[in-house]
Amino acid sequence: MPSWVAPVAGYLAGGLLTTLALAAVSIVVSVVLGTVLGALLVLPSRATRLAVRCYVEIWRGLPIIVTLFFIFFVLPVVGLRFDTFVAAAIGLCLWGSSNVAEVVRGAVQSVPHGQADAAAALGFPWHGRMRHVVFPQAVRRALPPLVGLVVNLTQQTSLAAVIGVLDLLQAAQRSIERLTLSSGVTHAVPILGAVLVVYFVICLPLTSLSRRLERSLRQG
Amino acid sequence: MTEPPAADQDTVIELRGVRKSFGELEILKGVDLAVRRGEVVVIIGPSGGGKSTLLRCVNLLEPVTAGQVFLEGEDLTGPGVDLNLIRRRIGMVFQQFNLFPHLTVLDNLTLAPRRLLGLDRREAERQANDLLSRVGLADKVDAHPRRLSGGQQQRVAIARALMMSPHVMLFDEVTSALDPELVSEVLDVMRDLARSGMTMLCVTHEMGFARELGDRLVFVDGGVIAEQGRPADVLDDPRHPRTRQFLHKVLR
Ligand SMILES: Nc1ncnc2c1ncn2[C@@H]1O[C@H](COP(=O)(O)OP(=O)(O)OP(=O)(O)O)[C@@H](O)[C@H]1O
Ligand SMILES: [Mg+2]
């Protein structure tokens, strides 16, 4: 084994940990916050819906990279300074939670109206209809697209590299640069190959889980 | 219009001058209808005439635009009425069954009595089993709705509504989504119910059922009750030209 491999591998492993931490934080916050926001989007209150709708449209509509630049380079101008990891996490959570909110809203609204009607006719108040009849069905419908979003969020963490977070991709890039400077050989192919395999290994089980969920949903 | 609401406890449902619009479109244009205890009222009429809307105005699944709705003398359109409490006394069965697909047949029946009436599981399940036997589905307690035929699903839906011990039952074309050979099993349950003295308001195209079990036949057209009377009279000798035209089409 060539001598450059061990230190690079160690460096990449550190990057991978950062990537996983960033993904974990973004996923947890996005799913929890997004579910709450999605639930607010189906509330009868118009004012609430409007406020949440604004949040969702803004952060879902912006390219994540623009949001990241904004948080990292623009907010410090008004005195809000974040370290790179926190800035990246905030950006990913804004994007993730607004997308989760849309998935949750869509799932709730895809439950046929007859279900809420039947529950109402039995005497369930609004929250009872939601809790016992609509939400349990919405959760099943929301799961496949939610897993898809989790995969997507994991992939999007690589954007954090552009504001300097030392994630897997950034670690790879720096390794390549250093090897080029020190030995004149880039070793880009094996290093980026490793990066590719790692992302693939993380995301493949999730995409296949999403497919399985979708299939089981179709079979009812 | 200012007389006191049907104080006699014999009137279960009363609609007075009920109007309903969706946006600009007025669907019900002043409906007056009183249903006595134990009476079976059958509603017929052309598609889009407002039959479903009329039924949904009885338990106020659709809020009325004008007019009043009374249940056993209580004005449901008045201020401070808790509709969720009122609806427990009004059972409703839908054309599309609307069973809860994520629950077993047993849980479909016990959900509302347990959550709303506070029945304990044992008692709720005992009542559910009794009702399922009554509609001939005792062996389906643990099945999921999607495993049942349309006729079976609709009988479960009727049993589910009966779990709340309603004082009146609303049926909205409950056999229209069924294969022809499954219609009679549902009508049998409804016949049973009618004979047991249940007050019923049924929208249907089953003229045989209307003639056999209806105490009164109501023809709804253009958002009003165009004609009503004893089923045999209306069916055999309709007065209103629109009724004649409609019956001519469906009985042909
Ligand atoms: N929620 C709604 N919003 C707007 N229009 C509605 C709504 N519900 C019903 N309508 C309209 O009201 C009219 C009457 O509908 P309704 O379902 O009461 O008729 P129906 O007599 O039950 O007809 P059918 O025999 O086809 O069931 C229709 O033109 C329908 O399009
Ligand atoms: Mg209808």
Automatic annotation (TrEMBL), chain A:
CDD domains per record: TM_PBP2
UniProt topology in membrane: Multi-pass membrane protein
GO cellular component: ATP-binding cassette (ABC) transporter complex
Subcellular location per the Swiss-Prot or TrEMBL entry: Cell membrane
Keywords from the named record: Amino-acid transport, Cell membrane, Membrane, Transmembrane, Transmembrane helix, Transport
PROSITE patterns the record matches: ABC_TM1
Pfam families: BPD_transp_1
Domain of life: Bacteria
GO molecular function, one term: transmembrane transporter activity
Record-annotated ABC transmembrane type-1 domain positions: 16-210
Membrane-spanning residues: 20-43, 64-82, 188-209
GO terms (BP aspect): amino acid transport
Membership in a protein family: Belongs to the binding-protein-dependent transport system permease family. HisMQ subfamily.
The name this protein goes by in its record: Polar amino acid transport system permease protein
Species for this entry: Nonomuraea jiangxiensis
Taxonomic lineage of the native organism: Bacteria, Bacillati, Actinomycetota, Actinomycetes, Streptosporangiales
From TrEMBL, chain B:
Entry EC no(s): 7.4.2.1
Compartment(s): Cell membrane
Signal peptide start-end: none
GO molecular function term, any single one: ATPase-coupled polar amino acid-transporter activity
Keywords, comma-separated and alphabetical: Amino-acid transport, ATP-binding, Cell membrane, Membrane, Nucleotide-binding, Transport
Top EC category: translocase
Membrane topology recorded in Swiss-Prot or TrEMBL: Peripheral membrane protein
PANTHER family, per database record: AMINO ACID IMPORT ATP-BINDING PROTEIN (PTHR43166), GLUTAMATE_ASPARTATE IMPORT ATP-BINDING PROTEIN GLTL (PTHR43166:SF9)
Protein name per Swiss-Prot or TrEMBL: ABC-type polar-amino-acid transporter
Native source species: Nonomuraea jiangxiensis
Lineage of source species: Bacteria, Bacillati, Actinomycetota, Actinomycetes, Streptosporangiales
